[in-house]
């Protein structure tokens, strides 16, 4: 029995020696070059493109199964500028034989030397990578396509190998050219180098990539893995650094779990400070945003921890630096079809004026061609109806239109088509502002309700910033409640309703001097000429209560109180018809001392009627009402009224002053 086993062992050893010898000798006696035409034909049939092997086939079978090919050409269809779509100077792969028997793959070399890929899209027709024979669509029904192989019990199979080791994996001196003739665009990647080291299934794979992208350097360095025996399952660690243009440096560190099955990622992202302006200059492109401050958008950095899955994503510990502004933020998003978003943002300070477009540089007298706009399309509010939102914004200081707002707090929520902004508070112009707003988009036309309270606000800078009008000074307070339906200016004006009051204390109306106007009347009584005064009316209090209903703004008790005057106003403004109907009644309550008048003028009234439209208001003294007022005697009344020329001058004076004031109150068109 032992002799039999001995002879069997000798026989087996002899067979192995014979096989190994045969494997080593086959390449020496077999002319593998005669297979080149078959290989070329097979590749041509599979791709639909002409394929050729310019160099010899170098084949080895032991101890490494290896093949080396050179001068590979995959042609372009007719009509393209380059003969070849793909060219490879040299391709080499060598795999160790004996470990294959144990499902262990040991690759000594995988080398792709000087690959050149040319991708071209013509002005008309298909690109050169389209309609390759290998890209024909399968005629097999989708539900009959082969499913991934599964183990008994429903588990997907892993790799059909026990281990993988690659000694040298490299792509050298690569080049990729993309030409889009329809857009007249060309991009080129050259000097492409890719090297993988420590390639195996059980430890991270080192990656080194570098290239010139349109002559701009790009590099990637890091580790990924381990891949594991079941790629796509388990935890895949990532530690990568990307650099581009010698300007951008991005680091990504973390892990991805089950990327092929149910991917979840947890990644730390760090974008070092860089200049977007320098980046665009390096790309040879104009900066896409024009800003008032040419130095704005010159510094950006970002750091955040990002976690996510197919159903949710979160950003924690986010830090964004934009020029001189620092922002901390956290955010979560889920149910992407809605979506459901929550966020919290904290900003130290920002000057928004720096980022506004610069003033228009239109030449005077040159008007752009005006095209009559078509009817506006109806906004789609369905995304807002689905939106679920819970957010909060805190800001130390934000400057806009030259006005600095401090200690800003905004909370905003949305659900089932109801959007609430409550509270919204800030400090501005030495006072405080608080606001609430509700937007209801559950129906076809949106509805809005707004409340606004001001307290201790300096009116001059506040109004100047909002309306670019220098019309009022003093300390301002308000309590407004407004509502409207619709999303067009016409609908909003038609449905606007509500009311409130504005109160100004210890200030002045800028643009009209009611005291001087009364002084002009006084000069008629005394025969003296009124002195020139700066156009302003100082007051102790200016109160404007109002109501809005059916597109009509009405006020009954508007009153201005000053040491000399009491001015009352009442009337209406029709928002849809743009018409005015007001009566302004000034009343002297003292004397015009300092101008030679010591007589009490209490009760003297020069009512002014305001009619016309917002664009063309009309003003005239209510002479009939004035005649009913008590004057000292008929001769003085005649002096006040004067002759026709005097009356005309008085009317024009009133028109000028009143028009100046009203135009200041009306927003610029």
Would you kindly provide a written description of the structure presented here, covering whatever features stand out?
The chain is an alpha+beta fold and 669 residues long. Among the domains are: 2-131 and 160-288, no CATH class; 476-665, no CATH class. It has helices at residues 2-29, 36-47, 276-282, 382-386, 459-467, 489-495, 514-526, 623-627, 634-641, 644-665; strands at 51-53, 58-60, 64-75, 84-96, 104-121, 163-180, 185-197, 199-200, 205-213, 216-225, 235-244, 248-257, 264-274, 300-309, 312-322, 325-334, 340-351, 388-400, 403-415, 418-428, 431-440, 447-458, 472-485, 497-510, 536-549, 552-561, 565-574, 579-588, 608-612, 617-621. Helix 7 (514-526) crosses helix 9. The longest helix has 28 residues, at 2-29. The radius of gyration is 42 Å and the shape is elongated.
**Main structural class:** alpha+beta
Q: State the end-to-end distance.
A: 113 Å
Largest sheet: 30 strands, mixed
Per the principal axes of the C-alpha atoms, what is the gross shape? elongated
How many E strands?
30
Could you list the spans in which at least 5 consecutive residues all have pLDDT below 50? 1-8, 11-23, 520-531, 664-669
Instruction: State the share of residues found in helices, binned by percent.
Output: 10-25%
Strand content: over 45%
Number of helical segments with 4 or more residues: 10
Q: How large is the radius of gyration?
A: 42 Å
